[in-house]
Specification:
Strand order of the largest sheet: 1-3-2
Helix content: 55-70%
Largest sheet: 3 strands, antiparallel
Strand content: under 5%
Number of strands: 6
Number of helices: 15
């Protein structure tokens, strides 16, 4: 459903859904509300575009529980009342809803509720196509090409009928299977009474629990079409995760489902009794505030009776839960024993395929004899010179010595190169050090020469005087 649609709440109406529906822009209202049936011949693309828009809208309106008085989300109820709720001030009532229903029946987007619940074959089998086609044509009067289809919506009326919306059912079924997978903890969690299923599994379209119609439809789909559950009487059993199909319901399954439902009912009853006890206590206090002692005593007496009832129910609940726990443990043990038994049978079959210990010993003896025969043949062929397996140890030793010499020469070359590089590096460093030393010596000598020249100049001046 498009994200721009209103959420599934009590404030959503058909008119608000229409105004927000992305496939119903104002520019298309005139075409969508007109009698566009003739377009099927003169403009098929326009015709099927309108049919597709209405089909999508009716599907989403049903998801919101807006197309039936009981707020079904999987069943569309067509009626004149629905046409009136779809009417607008500008366009009036839609005039081609009948064509939409007819086309949806043909493509199996809609399936008559009674047919859906009674047909033994899956809706995905080929036999459904002829069933739906016969249903549609049986309701079309033979009055030529302009005959009215399933309804009289061109005259402003629409026959009352109920249709299963297949896409909604498929989506709801996936949600139920997901809910079951999340709560599964063993064999006991796979079985339910129909009442327990209705209480525990929520409608994924945000409408709380499934309505009666929705419940019948989702259970039939899960059993017949999705192959996710088996149903027997009032008991439902989900298929185990490791099984491709649901298994038959046994007497033990029925007992487990009934026990679970009884425990659930007892929990609800205890909650109600506890609430009642608290209310009686509050009432007694209020009577005392008003100085109404007799009424306070009456409330307290009733409270005591309720508390006794709570104790009795709590004891019964403990016993029921204990029995359920033991049954669940026994079921797990039975499953474990069955798996061990199947594993033992499989191991025995595999051992039989091998042939037992004697067969293994026989095979190993054959392998040993075959190996000895091969060795004997090699010895004979060597003796006759056909196969030479002799290796000259002297040649091997010489080749090894040659490899060792080559390796020693390689290491010597590497060592020589390394020593040469180190010597060159040392010579370079010594040269640099010598150059720096000579440079300093030259500076010192220059300073000494200058001092001597200064003294000699002074002596010459002294002689002149």
């Amino acid at each position: 459903m498009p994200s721009s649609l209103p959420s599934n709440d009590s404030h959503t109406t058909l008119s608000s859904l229409l105004r927000a529906y992305p496939l119903f822009p104002r520019s298309r209202f005139t075409s969508l509300y007109s009698d566009f049936r003739p377009l099927r011949t003169i403009n098929p693309d326009g015709y099927f575009a309108n049919v597709s828009a209405w089909e999508s809208f009716l599907r989403d309106a049903t998801r919101h529980g807006l197309t039936s008085p009981s707020h079904d989300t999987l069943v569309l109820t067509t009626s004149t009342l629905l046409l009136g709720e779809l009417a607008t001030e500008e366009e009036g009532r839609p005039l081609a809803i009948g064509a939409v229903v007819t086309e949806s029946l043909t493509t199996k987007a809609l399936i008559p509720l009674t047919t859906f619940l009674t047909q033994p074959d899956s809706i995905y089998t080929q036999s459904w196509a002829s069933t739906i086609t016969n249903f549609v044509w049986s309701r079309i009067p033979i009055v030529g090409e302009t005959a009215a289809p399933v309804d009289d919506s061109r005259e402003g009326t629409l026959k009352t009928a109920q249709y299963v919306v297949v896409k909604n059912v498929e989506e709801a079924a996936r949600a139920v299977v997901k809910q079951q997978a999340e709560r599964r903890s063993g064999r006991v969690s796979d079985v339910w009474t129909i009442e327990g299923f209705a209480e525990e599994f929520m409608n994924p379209f945000g409408k709380g629990r499934f309505t009666d119609n929705d419940l019948m439809v989702i259970l039939k789909y899960l059993e017949r079409d999705a192959k996710e559950i088996s149903v027997s009487g009032n008991t439902i059993k989900f298929k185990p995760p490791t099984s491709p199909r649901p298994t038959l319901i046994t007497a033990t399954d029925t007992t487990l489902a009934s026990l679970k439902h009884t425990i659930s009912i007892t929990h609800v009853s205890l909650t109600a009794l506890t609430t009642h006890s608290t209310a009686l206590s509050t009432r007694a206090k209020s009577f005392l505030v008003c100085n109404n002692r007799p009424a306070a005593l009456s409330a307290l007496r009733t409270k005591k009776l309720v508390e006794q009832h709570i104790e009795t129910r709590a004891a019964s609940l403990a016993q029921l839960e204990g029995v359920l726990y033991q049954l669940e443990q026994a079921a797990d043990n039975a499953t474990l024993i069955r798996l061990l038994s199947e594993g033992g049978k499989a191991l025995k079959e595999m051992n039989q395929e091998v042939g037992g210990v004697e067969k293994v010993e026989e095979v190993m003896e054959q392998l040993r004899e075959a190996g000895e025969d091969a060795e004997e043949m090699n010895r004979v062929m060597n003796r006759e010179g056909l196969v030479s397996e002799h290796v000259d140890e002297g040649e091997v030793e010489e080749e090894l010595e040659e490899l060792l010499r080559e390796e020693e020469q390689r290491r010597e070359r590497e060592e020589y190169v390394k020593r040469t590089k180190e010597a060159e590096e040392r010579a370079r460093k010594e040269a640099e050090e010598l150059a720096r030393s000579l440079e300093g010596l030259e500076i010192i000598q220059n300073g000494v020469g200058e001092k001597q020249e200064g003294r000699e100049g002074e002596r010459e001046r002294e002689r002149a005087y």
